[in-house]
Structures are given as C-alpha cells and as structure tokens.
Amino acid sequence: METGLAGLTLNEDEEAVLQIQDESLSGEEKEVFRLVGCFLTASVIHFPAMKSTMANLWHPVQGVQIRDLGDKRFLFQFYHVMDMERVLKGAPRTFNNHLLMLHKLQWEEDPLQVPLFFTPFWVQIYDVPIRLFFENLAVQLGNFVGSFLEYDESNLGKENRNYMRVRVQIDVRRPLKKKK
User: Best label site of 58, 74, 163, 168, fewest CB within 10 Å?
Assistant: First the structure.
C-alpha cells in the first residue's frame, strides 16, 4: 500500500489557484436582509423553541429563516426589508428573559466575526423641567447613558408624562449609569 501511495502527485492544473469573481450579482441583488444575533446569557438556548417563538413573535409578512451558526450565534434571513426593519425598530428583543443583541449584516461581513456588544434601548429620563424638553438636551443625556440614536418628541403632553424618552445604543459590557 505504501508503494501505491508514494507514487501519487499533484498535477500543475490541481495546484492552480481558483479565482472567483463576484460579477453575477448586481447592486440590488447584493442587498441582503440578514441579521446576526446572540443572546446575552451563559445558558444554552433551545434552538427549536427560540426559532418558533421568534418567528411567531415577529410575524414577518414575507417570512424569516433562522439558522444556528454555532458559537451561540444565530442568522436571521428576512425576505423583505420591511420585516427586517420592523424587528430592528422593535428593540429590545428577548427570549426566555434573555436579551437578543442583533447586528444588520452587510454583504461582505462574516456573521461569526461581527462584534455583538451593543443594543438599543428606550430610556426614560426623569426630573427634567418641561421647559428644557428639547432635542439638544436629549442628545447630551443620551450620549451620557450610551450613544444617542433618537429623541421621542411625541411623548410631550401625553397623559401628564414627566419624563423624556431617548433611544440610545448601550454597550452591554459596561455597567449602566444611574444618575447625572
């Protein structure tokens, strides 16, 4: 057997590098509606239960395909931008009280290499005098808590609410800030 294997060699054709050119897809076809996510937990996520629950909870019009990528990461493939944007806008998301952190994938991004440390939250800021309810103060306070994303101006005058609503991007590796 050793003599038979000793005679094996690679031909020059087999050693040539294969180059793949990505010309088959146009700009519109390259647009993908994929999210990669992981749950903020040390425990194991039961994939079939999570898949069923998230699909029923999000109820996307065009559907969603959910795949387990391993390493506690999941790929969410949507078939319409509206479905994906609705999921991203509806943050925070949870399954069994575990926070789901999501990242919108670009065409060239590897879902296993994307850092998943940030998640958006709506934060209520109390004890701000109503005369100071302006977006520039909301931006400053939002950047103190995390990274400012948006200010909810529609909150003013609703049911005597005495707080500002600010959407911020929070780094889950850092402790929450409580007072300013």
Answer: 163
